[in-house]
Amino acid sequence: MTRRSWLRSTRLALEVRQRIPPLHRAAFILGALIVGLAICVAILVGRGVGLASIYEEFIAFTFFKASGVSTVIVQSTPLVLAGLSASLAFRVNYWNIGIEGQLFMGVIGATLVAIFDVGPESIRLVLMLVAAIVLGAAWALPPALLKVRLNVSEVISTLLFSYIAFYFVLNQVYGPWQDPKDKFPHSEQYDAIERLPPIGWEQVHYGIVVALAAVAVVWWLVERSRFGIQSRFVGTSPRMALAIGLPVGAIVASSAVLSGGMAGAAGFVIATATEFRLTPAMAAGYGFSGIVIAFLAGNRPFATLIVACLMGGLYVAGESMKVFYSLPDALVGLIQAIVVLSVTASEFFVRYRLRLAHYRGA
């Protein structure tokens, strides 16, 4: 066979991997992360940033110094909850794109309790958390019912509900809830008793307890409970689940409501630990981040915790770039996108294998 005929009869074949060992998955993700970071380093060097400065300011400070690590933890806490919110819905193939709207409604619930001084001060924070979860879950319910009863696309309905939530927030902060002191479009600040206290180390607050508790509860729910087994079955094969008698509609709707409640908890943490009030911009970006985190974590709770921390470190490093080197927001966003896309692309090589295939008679 000549070289030309051999080349003509050879094709690249794409094969689905039947089994994906955890170590192989981790190796592919790590390799993609290294490639993405190498591209980012090349971009920064091209902008005149030295290699030693890149290591010192972006890696050593972010992940190995107390102030940097505490900032990463604070940034990652609501990301963990947003990632859990997305993963709960994605497990049953319910594409909840309205996480930001549900997060906003969670803040609305917490702010209602704070403004009207609901309940005794000793349990005010608990009541704010409960209200945030309930309103976030309630906001996720109508799109879920539209999906289950009328087969309306949840991508469209959850997104539209996010717009409604956002404009409701605007109505409140420009109207009845506008801060009477400075007249800016935000609510008045929460009282000291209505804020999550610090745990006593750097900037870290008790929101981390909420996030870790949420990870533990979701892990038990999806890995050990009957509901978790059923939801996994529905996510894998809804027709088969329906054929054997599982209440597919109820499971999908329940997963969507749980997703909304988790988004509401994320809003509670942001409002009571960072913003201390309701503001129109507080939910920006959390929906997208939650979706990316859930995808990279494979909808697994403990993996969500790890990915959220890495994502938080990426955001903190981006802010350091802007502060120390006056890099434009567009460049920082580009660098963050390169890292995220590199890791996301690794999923292709995790699931598929490329090999050279020879076709006889070609």
Short description:
This protein is mainly alpha-helical and about 350 residues long.
Summarize the SSE layout with pairings.
Elements: H1 3-8, E1 10-16, H2 22-46, H3 51-64, H4 66-90, H5 99-115, H6 124-150, H7 154-173, H8 207-223, H9 226-236, H10 238-243, H11 248-275, H12 286-296, H13 301-325, H14 329-351, E2 352-358
Antiparallel strand pairs: 1-2
Helix pairs in contact: 2-14, 3-4, 3-13, 4-8, 4-11, 4-12, 4-13, 5-6, 5-7, 5-11, 6-7, 6-11, 8-9, 8-11, 8-13, 9-11, 12-13, 13-14
Mean pLDDT: 87
Low-confidence stretches: none
CATH architecture of the largest domain: Orthogonal Bundle
Number of strands: 2
Rounded to the nearest angstrom, the radius of gyration is 23 Å
Discrete helix count: 14
Spatial separation of the terminal alpha carbons: 12 Å
| CATH fold field value of the largest domain | ABC transporter involved in vitamin B12 uptake, BtuC
The ordered string of helix (H) and strand (E) elements is: HEHHHHHHHHHHHHHE
What is the CATH first-level class name of the largest domain?
A: Mainly Alpha
Query: Helix proportion of residues, in percent?
Result: over 70%
Strand portion: under 5%
Structural class: mainly alpha
* Main pleated sheet: 2 strands, antiparallel
Shape: globular
Classify the oligomer. Answer: single chain
